[in-house]
């Protein structure tokens, strides 16, 4: 049987996904399948780099002439913005990016599709955040993107739970510049008012991780979402499902981003998107 995947050759265009850890990323399977289906001469490979090596790696990648795109996962989504020549609107608002592409003039543009993918995934599971009060745990790179998308999608209020005071203040200040009073630091007492609780921290990737928050404080009908993609069913989602609460798994966020990546990188099949970066329903 003939392998449908194009052979890697000297003309193959390169894409990478950066992270620490990187074993959990699903982007190589999704994007390489896309390249195979569309006969695109390109390949995406994972690159494991820690914070202490990010500067050296990014400088090298920017100078790699057959590299067209970079995807970014934990913990680099905030720091990677420093290596972009231009930030798209979502990256500008969130202060974090999960994708960079080389432009025609050789400069690099960064943007963030975590938020758009998350909201689209929520709606695909029947949970529209418009008018909802949201408890968001985590103000790292992904949490920032989710907060920005929840703001633009019409969520009623954001209650932010982030132990790092610098990260917490920075994100709240960014959001206040666009909608004063919409977001504030949350307390355990606030959880009883939330219709949606979101884990945007890495907690849940390892089997011995504690839960990112205690379900006992939530409403019985509160939807629980987790952006951790591996394992597909985190301890948080399992506990929420056992308690009878609706759940939204992390894989829906990435699955919903694939078309956005196609459009951002100019890949075949990316024409079915609006120019504002929002996913078609």
Main attributes of the structure:
single chain; 281 residues; alpha/beta; six-stranded mixed β-sheet; 12 strands
What topology does this entry show?
Blueprint: E1 13-19, H1 27-37, E2 42-48, H2 54-62, E3 67-72, E4 86-87, H3 89-94, E5 99-102, E6 108-111, H4 114-124, E7 133-137, H5 141-152, E8 157-161, H6 165-178, E9 183-185, E10 196-199, E11 223-226, H7 235-242, E12 247-248, H8 251-255, H9 258-265
Parallel strand pairs: 1-2, 1-3, 4-6, 7-8, 7-10, 8-9, 10-11, 11-12
Antiparallel strand pairs: 3-5, 5-6
Helix pairs in contact: 4-5
Short description:
With 281 residues, this protein is an alpha/beta fold.
User: H/E element string?
Assistant: EHEHEEHEEHEHEHEEEHEHH
Runs in which pLDDT lies below 50 for 5 or more consecutive residues are: 272-281
Which band does the percent of strand residues land in?
A: 15-25%
Q: If you compute it from the alpha carbons, what radius of gyration comes out, rounded to the nearest whole angstrom?
A: 19 Å
Distance between the termini: 37 Å
Residue-averaged pLDDT: 92
Beta-strand segment tally: 12
Notes on the structure:
Helix 7 (about 235-240) links the parallel strand 11 (about 225) and strand 12 (about 245-250). Helix 4 (about 115-125) packs across helix 5. A six-stranded mixed beta sheet has the order 2-1-3-5-6-4. It has a six-stranded parallel beta sheet with strand order 9-8-7-10-11-12, with helices on both faces. Residues about 270-280 have low confidence and may be disordered. It is an alpha/beta fold. The chain contains nine helices and twelve strands.
């Amino acid at each position: 049987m003939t392998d449908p995947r194009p052979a890697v050759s000297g003309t193959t265009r390169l894409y990478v996904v950066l992270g620490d850890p990187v074993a959990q990323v699903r982007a190589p399977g999704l994007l390489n399948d896309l390249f195979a289906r569309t006969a695109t001469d390109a390949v995406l490979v994972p690159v494991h780099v820690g914070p202490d090596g990010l500067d050296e790696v990014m400088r090298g990648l920017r100078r790699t002439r057959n590299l067209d795109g970079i995807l970014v996962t934990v913990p680099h989504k905030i720091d990677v913005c420093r290596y972009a020549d231009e930030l798209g609107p979502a990256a500008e608002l969130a202060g974090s990016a999960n994708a960079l592409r080389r432009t025609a003039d050789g400069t690099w543009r960064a943007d963030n599709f975590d938020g758009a993918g998350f909201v689209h995934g929520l709606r695909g599971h029947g949970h529209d955040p418009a008018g909802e009060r949201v408890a968001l745990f985590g103000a790292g790179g992904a949490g920032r993107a989710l907060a920005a998308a929840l703001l633009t999608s019409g969520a009623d209020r954001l209650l932010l739970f982030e132990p790092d005071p610098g990260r917490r203040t920075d994100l709240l200040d960014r959001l206040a510049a666009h909608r004063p009073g919409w977001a504030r630091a949350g307390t355990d007492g606030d959880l009883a008012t939330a219709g949606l609780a979101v884990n945007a921290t890495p907690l849940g990737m390892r089997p011995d991780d504690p839960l990112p928050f205690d379900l006992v404080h939530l409403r019985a009908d509160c939807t629980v979402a987790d952006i951790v993609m591996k394992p597909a069913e985190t301890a948080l989602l399992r506990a929420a499902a056992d308690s009878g609460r609706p759940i939204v798994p992390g894989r829906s966020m990435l699955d919903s981003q694939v078309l956005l990546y196609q459009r951002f990188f100019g890949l075949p099949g990316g024409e079915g998107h609006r120019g504002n970066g929002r996913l078609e329903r």
